[in-house]
Amino acid sequence: MKKWFVAAAALVVLVGIPAAYPASPNGQAQSGDDGAATKACKAERGTTTQSIDAFKNKYGTNKKKANAFGKCVSSKSKDDDEKAQGDDKNEGSSSAAKACKAERGTTSQSIEAFKNKYGTNKNKANAFGKCVSGKSTSKNKDND
Predict the structure, then answer these.
(1) Domain region containing 99
(2) Predicted confidence band at 96 (pLDDT cuts at 50, 70, 90)?
(3) 130 vs 26, 58, 104, 134, 137, CA distance in Å?
(4) Which of 19, 58, 83, 136, CA to CA, is 20 to 30 A from 98?
(5) Quick one: 96 and 84 in the same domain?
(6) Do 143 and 125 fall within a single domain?
(7) More confident residue, 104 or 88
(8) Distance between CA 77 and CA 56 in Å, rounded?
(9) How far lies 38's CA from each of 48, 72, 111, in Å?
């Protein structure tokens, strides 16, 4: 009887610890910095059946759209991070990225030409980063 009790207690401890500290997709514990994003998503989700269904349709990506809340928090916290980085570093970096995305185009020919123009490594996979870096650097020089 004692062995069973000890085994059950150990199981409760092992199951309780990960539940208390949920892991992010990369296996690290979440920091809890997403408080504002969580509140915004709760407010957006609402409490009525219609608002919850609309929320799931907007953010859910799996079959039952059960991941909608996590996707909402993730997208809102990424937006907050990008805004903070834009305020701290390069205010024009998002417009530089938009300009590079437009320049890259969507056809295979335009993408290949874009890679040849900006890519510097063996497979030219760094083309987009080089484009954004070049455009945001030139904007900062213009502002000085």
Answers:
(1) 91-144
(2) confident
(3) 26, 33, 12, 6, 10
(4) 58
(5) no
(6) yes
(7) 104
(8) 18
(9) 18, 8, 37
